[in-house]
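Risk register update: the risk of archive-format incompatibility is retired. Evidence:
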Amino acid sequence: MEYGIRKLVKACELDPLNQSVRLLLGTAYLLDGRLEPALDSFKNAERIRRDPRVYTDMAFCYMQMREWQRARDCLELALSFKPDFQDALDYLAELNKRKPVQ
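Archived output:
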């Protein structure tokens, strides 16, 4: 996994405005159990372009960190961009099972 992460970091350096690479890097960090770097990578992707995928990935990260309100905020933001974004809807349903709105 570390080799792939190094290559993705290098790709980010070579093309700093490539949102897809930043999302891939965040996912690689997630798979490696490194939540803070994953979240940082997703936030960098957000600076390039705001879209539902970015906020859904950030929400998943926050869910893993048990930061329920931040996860909910990200999912609601994702759905404000695209109300039928299925990943965001699925994560929100999962979040509501774990931590219902009070």
